[in-house]
Structures are given as C-alpha cells and as structure tokens.
Amino acid sequence: xxxxxxxxxxxxxxxxxxxxxxxxxxxxxxxxxxxxxxxxxxxxxxxxxxxxxxxxxxxxxxxxxxxxxxxxxxxxxxxxxxxxxxxxxxxxxxxxxxxxxxxxxxxxxxxxxxxxxxxxxxxxxxxxxxxxxxxxxxxxxxxxxxxxxxxxxxxxxxxxxxxxxxxxxxxxxxxxxxxxxxxxxxxxxxxxxxxxxxxxxxxxxxxxxxxxxxxxxxxxxxxxxxxxxxxxxxxxxxxxxxxxxxxxxxxxxxxxxxxxxxxxxxxxxxxxxxxxxxxxxxxxxxxxxxxxxxxxxxxxxxxxxxxxxxxxxxxxxxxxxxxxxxxxxxxxxxxxxxxxxxxxxxxxxxxxxxxxxxxxxxxxxxxxxxxxxxxxxxxxxxxxxxxxxxxxxxxxxxxxxxxxxxxxxxxxxxxxxxxxxxxxxxxxxxxxxxxxxxxxxxxxxxxxxxxxxxxxxxxxxxxxxxxxxxxxxxxxxxxxxxxxxxxxxxxxxxxxxxxxxxxxxxxxxxxxxxxxxxxxxxxxxxxxxxxxxxxxxxxxxxxxxxxxxxxxxxxxxxxxxxxxxxxxxxxxxxxxxxxxxxxxxxxxxxxxxxxxxxxxxxxxxxxxxxxxxxxxxxxxxxxxxxxxxxxxxxxxxxxxxxxxxxxxxxxxxxxxxxxxxxxxxxxxxxxxxxxxxxxxxxxxxxxxxxxxxxxxxxxxxxxxxxxxxxxxxxxxxxxxxxxxxxxxxxxxxxxxxxxxxxxx
Length: 744
Ligand SMILES: [Zn+2]
Known about the structure:
Elements: H1 3-10, H2 42-65, E1 75-81, H3 100-108, E2 110-116, H4 122-131, H5 135-138, H6 155-162, E3 165-169, E4 187-189, H7 207-221, E5 226-232, H8 245-248, H9 253-274, E6 281-287, E7 292-293, E8 299-300, H10 307-310, E9 311-317, E10 326-328, E11 332-333, H11 337-344, H12 359-362, E12 372-376, H13 378-383, E13 388-393, E14 396-400, E15 405-408, H14 424-441, H15 453-462, H16 483-497, H17 501-514, H18 519-531, H19 535-548, H20 553-565, H21 569-582, H22 587-599, H23 603-616, H24 621-633, H25 637-650, H26 655-667, H27 671-684, H28 688-701, H29 704-716, H30 723-743
Parallel strand pairs: 1-5, 1-6, 2-10, 2-11, 3-4, 3-5
Antiparallel strand pairs: 2-9, 6-9, 7-8, 12-13, 13-14, 14-15
Zinc ion binds at residues 82-83, 122, 288-289.
C-alpha cells in the first residue's frame, strides 16, 4: 500500500462511501368598506322615515360596525417575514422602503401598528404563532436544541382536520421538520440544499427558491381548499441581497433583503390572482421578530427584549370579508394569530390557547391592550448570561433581569429611561403578575427533555454528565453588563462572514479569555481553526470547552464531527453516543454512528441507525444512498433497487447511483438493466468500477467481445486498484479470448 493510500484510509470523510470489495467471480461494487314644514299629514311621512332611518342604521351598523364577515370557505395563506422590522416597511411609514407589494396588501387590508412577538427567536416565535400559546406552555425556548411536542395542537393540525390541504415552504434550518413545526402539514418543504448530508444550523435558502417550490406545488394543488405557510428568511443576517438589490441598496443591504423578499411576496399574491383565488383567501403577513442595529448594544436579535426585536409587522387581507385600509393601534400578539384565523373560519379554538381572536378589533370594538409575556433564553444557553423574562401590560414593559428594567412605552417608546428604581410599586405589581404567568401558563411540555437514569449513568461513565442539572442555582451575569463582549462577538462573526478566519480566531480567543463559559465561542473558534486547516487545534478547543461545560450538546456534536474528520473513529463513536444519550433524535449523531458502524463492517447495526436517521429526514440523499448500499451488500437487493430507483429520479446526474443500481441489477441477473445503468454511469464518469462491472455483465450475457472491451478499459484505469483483482482480470481476458477462438 502506498503512503498516499494509507493517509486516505486514515482520514475518513463522510460522502465517500467505500465500495464493495470485488469478488472473484465477477460481481460487485455499490455507494442518496333638515327639517321643513309640509302641508300634508305628518304621520304619512313619519312611518316611512322611521323605516328609512331604521334600514339606514341597520346598513350603517352592518358596514361600519360589522365590517367583518367570517367565512369558513376561505383558504388561508400565511407568510412569515423573518427578522423584518415593521418600521422598515413602506406601509409603516418608512420612506426609503421599496416594499410595493407588502404596502399594497396593507392598503387593501388591515394593519396592526402594535404587534409583538413573545420571543425574539425564529423557532420559539413560530411555535407561539402555530400553537397560540406562550413558550411557557409550548416549551420551545431556543433554536436548534428544542422540539415542539407532538402532544401540542397546532393550527395546521386543526386546518388539516377541517379538510384543508396544508403545505409549508420554509427557508431556514431553525424551522426544519425535525424540530416539530411540520405537525399537521401534508407537505413540508424544508430542503435547503438538495443533496447535502448535514444541514448546518445556519442553513437557509433565498426567497426565489422558496417561491419556485411554492409555485410548483401550487400549480398542482390550487383547486383544493388550502392552508399555505410560506417562510421568507432573507432579512436575516448576513445581509447579502442578490442583484440588482445588492447594488441598489449598497449602503443598507438589510433594506435590500426586504425589497428582494417583497418582490417574491408579490409573486405569491400574483399566483393566487392568476387562479382567481385572492378573493377567496385570508392573507396574513407577519414578522417572527425584529432586528436590532446597535441601538442598545445588540446587533441582530435574541439577546434583549427591547422594541427593536419584539415589534413585528402584522397585516391581514380578506377581500369583502375584512375591512380595507384599517389601521389598528391596539396591541396584538403572535399568539393571537391562531385564534383569529380559527375564528374567521368559524372554528373553535383549543382550550389551552393563551391568545385571543383579534376579529372584535376589526369591528372597531375598543379593547384594552392585551398583556404580553416575553422571554429569551438565548443569552443563557448560548453565552452563559442570564435569561430575560418580562411582561408588557398597559403602557408598561417590565423585564426581570439581574438588574430589573421598567419602561413606560407611551411616554418613552425608545426605552431610554429605566424607571425600575423610581417606581417600586409598579415593579412589585408587575413582578407578582409575572409570577402568576409563570405559575399558570406553564406546562410539563415546557421542560427540557428529562434524562432517564440509565442515560445519566451512561453520560457520567463517559465523563460527559452535564452542568444542566446543577447550573440552575448559579448566578448568571446580566446581558446588559456584557455589551462589550457582545460587540466583540459581533465583530468576530463579521470577520468570519468576510472569510478573515485568522482575525476571527484572535477575537474569539480574546472573548474566551474574558469569559471562558461561552459555548458558542468555543464552537466558533474551533470551526475557524478547521477552516484554517488546523483540526488538532479545533479538537483541543472543543475538548477544553467540554471540560468546562460537560453537557453542551453543541460542543459534543462538533467534537464528534471533528474526531470523524480526523479518522479517530472510536472517539467519534463514543462522543456521538453521548450526544444521542442527551438527544435521542439527533440526526447528525444517528448518521455518524451509522457511518462508523458501516466502516467497522457491522452492517446490521449500521442499517438500524441509517433507518432511524431516515425517519427524521426522509429526503436525505446521503442516508438513502448508504442505506441502499448497505441493503444491497446484505443481500436485500430488491429493497436496495427501490431506493436507488427513487434516488435516480431526483439525482439523474449522479454517476454513483447509476453505477450502484447497475451492479444491483447485475446481482439480480437483470443484465439488460445492469448494462443500461452502467453505461449511463460510464457516460457520466468512467470509473474502473463501472468498466469492470460492465465487463462482468456482458460476460454473463454471453457477449464476450464486449466483455473483453470493458475489462480492457478497466485495466487502462486500474492504477491503484487491488493487484490481485488486476491479475484476475488479465487472466479473465485471456480466458475469454480463448473462448472466442475456440468457438471459431
Ligand atoms: Zn426569525
């Protein structure tokens, strides 16, 4: 074995499935709305007048006081505008906006000027929207590490049960089906990059792709009553709109992302108009949270509970059913969307819902502002700083933090004066009310998954028993006191985006010197080392982080990936097993463990893990390819062929699939199919494996001259192949030539 080959064998990387070993008898190789006096009797007039007035009052009341007509036959189109600040849209008064489509919907519909999220984070916020409950109840507190319980009743589930076809087109991994938001959807498109093995936490796709996916589905399903959810993620960091928005908004790319997104909001509305369905559809445009631009030291969202990141756009449109051009200034919350939609469709809301129908507001009923519970666990879980919880009530916003905050939003909408010290009475009142929320709105679903005793023991044995059990008593710093660190983190992230990894490394190292308990910084630092081609340093930094935060799922996962990349299979397997102990449905762990077992030749165990992974992400190409390969090499050829055949429909340019399919058909003695598939493989990429197996197939067909031709082509490309195999092919060619001569 050459030196190069030895190194290749040691550096095992996913995506390079090992080929079957060749058998001697020529088979093999596989890799997924005045009075006057009159001279006639007055009574003759008075009766008709009363009638006219009555009718007028009736009509007036109907149109003015009751401009809402609920309609259970309406379709629902929900478009969530990720990271979109209301004050950056034209309809909310922003002069520099280029949002004609959103503004048009607002002009014809109803616009809420005081709409609020409960959490300034994508996944928890969408969970509030889709369940009508506070995070205290639905339990999704952060991105990436929580699941929406299958016990919860979602909007999609109710609409599906009503008989609507339900479809979602999402654009960020944070709302991937694996986290449970797909509940109740007949179709849930969360494919960001087709064919990618592991979806990164940052995985996203542009509005154009989301639109294309929507359009394709819509053309085939528009004639059925529908509930469609389209999620646009473009305004999220990094701000990088495509041309021509890139050039047009060079000074403010965030506005450019919104303008770009608006274009596709327009295309979706156009698609509905084309099918005459806009008049029969309740359209809702809503943001999941806002975005901060350094106003209070934060860039982005998630850390604080200020107006910049909690206030969202909210627009309703239902032609001839809801008012047109109405502006509502009463506070609305994302948790009110589900009960509003259900009320409009004349469906009852489930009991546990915390939100209320907003339809009485459309009828100009004066209602008091609804209180709003708000929270973010992002600072605690990602940076080791205190979580923030709070309550918005009347004009007040109370934030419970190590240093409490109280703002009067009516007199101080910019939250510049913290009244906490001067208004202790209000603080006491709101604190008590907040406790009431915690006590009465929480559910058992809100708990992070509890570890079983066995799992705890396993983690302890591996040295990975987490701080998750002990940390609740520790004092966490107030995020307000961490502004400088936050600025450094933002700076490092920007450098990463600009691909200046060396400089990013220096800043992350500095951050960790200031605060060694920030899991995210260990991960980012390690990832930068990996990008710089320094895997050993990455390994060291992940291990260092884990020594301080032994239960960090994020760090464990990164460590598992890195061990694998370095060929340290045993360490990788152990690490991934501890990830599974913490999170039994961790896709990356399941796939990596399957891969490792297949390397170890334990096919049956590998297959179990591939099947578990496939139940989480059925569209995953890598898993399907490898499962099929596993099945083929374990003698389950028909099942393997079925998977390869479905893969080839989606990935017709993947030579490996054609090759494996051809080989599988060869084993099934379907030689015509074998030859057809292998020839396609050879046209895409002439590999020794394909030539060899073509030779074998032709030999089996009795076409000896063709067999010789392909075996020779194999020999031409055989450098680096097994010596014994090469020898046997040479011998085979001789023997076949002899057979031809003998026939003559
Ligand atoms: Zn978001």
